[in-house]
Design goal:
There is one protein chain. The chain is of the alpha/beta class. The protein has eight helices and 14 strands. The protein has an eight-stranded mixed β-sheet, sandwiched between helices. β7 and β8 form a beta hairpin. It is globular and about 60 Å long.
């Protein structure tokens, strides 16, 4: 276990939320407590090495946007380049944590650990799970050999590519699907059950663009549409007319798309919109076949396929 500093960046979320009654686990307000207050409430957090704390943002993660993801990526990268820092922990809301984790993994590919953690109960709850999740996240970040972006919740360590929120209320709300978690944290010790994601460092082209951004329009606009029984093409036509650069279609089964929706997507592609397909199924992956009409993002959920497409468009200047 490394004795170097662990940096904890706070962004708000349920983990920092409070309610007027300790038995209220749904009527709380997110992002009320500072990261300093959260750390101070966990005496065991500072044992084993230094903790550096910074409040990067304070919001409900349903309102997360790519400008904040950019700031988070750059700040985490800055800390990880320091020789006295072993890793970075990010406190985050559960609603979009999988998107932020995938973004950070795609942009930074860190050779040191970035561990996102969260809570399904507010800090004021009788069942508050945030303190244990934070302790577990620091345990992972201090682990020798840890690298890449992971999400730690309910004692499980999930990889950024696979992690997905699967439940609206349970404390154990996340899954890594068919692949399974990277490992577990048990009584302050990490038990790995599969290798860490191979990381080779930042995507230099994207990172340079993030660093050079001076404001104004920056992110290519990409939207998601859902294929379902009776799907039509009016939504796609409206989205394409608005000037989007890309559309991800969350298909049925193995990324299949209703014929009327498919025609609208073909029309949008003819007009210059890039089309990518994923699946609305929670588990499994889209398997490409010869003659597929649209390219597939194999293994990525619709929200992660959207981020991947945005980064592709950003890299190519489309």
């Amino acid at each position: 276990m490394s004795s170097k500093n662990i940096v904890i960046l706070g962004t708000g979320g349920t983990i920092a939320g409070t309610a007027s009654r300790a038995c209220d686990n749904v009527g709380y307000t997110a992002a009320q407590l500072t990261i300093d207050a959260l750390v101070a409430a966990i005496p065991g957090l500072v044992s084993g090495g230094g903790i550096l704390v910074e409040q990067l943002a304070q919001l409900d993660s349903k309102d997360m946007d790519f400008d904040l993801m950019r700031r988070l990526a750059l700040r985490a990268h800055e800390f990880l380049t320091r020789s006295d820092v072993a890793g970075v922990v990010v406190t985050h809301g559960t609603d979009t944590i999988e998107e932020t984790a995938f973004f950070l993994q795609s942009v930074l590919g860190p050779t040191k650990p970035i561990v996102l953690t969260c809570a399904m109960r507010p800090a004021s709850s009788l069942q508050a799970d945030g303190p244990q999740n934070m302790l577990d996240a620091v345990t992972v970040a201090r682990n020798d050999g840890a690298n890449g972006v992971t999400v730690v919740c309910a004692g499980m360590v999930h990889g950024a590519v696979e992690v997905q929120k699967m439940h609206t209320y349970k404390l154990d709300a996340f899954s890594s699907g068919d692949v399974g978690p990277v490992g577990y944290v048990e009584e302050g010790r990490l038990r790995l059950i599969r290798p860490w994601t191979e990381n080779t460092g930042p995507s230099s082209g994207i990172l340079k663009k993030l660093m050079a951004w001076g404001g104004g329009d920056f992110w290519p606009e990409v939207e998601i549409v859902l294929s379902h029984a009776g799907a039509g093409g009016s939504t796609v036509a409206a989205i394409a007319a608005s000037g989007v650069k890309g559309i991800v279609v969350a298909g049925t089964g193995n990324g299949t798309v209703h014929e009327k929706l498919e025609q609208a997507l073909l029309d949008a592609r003819t007009a210059g919109v890039r089309i990518v397909r994923s699946t609305r199924c929670a588990n499994g992956r889209v398997m490409s076949r010869p003659g597929d009409v649209f390219e597939a993002r194999e293994g990525l959920s619709p929200v992660k396929a959207r981020i991947a497409l945005m980064l592709d468009l950003l890299a190519t200047g489309a």
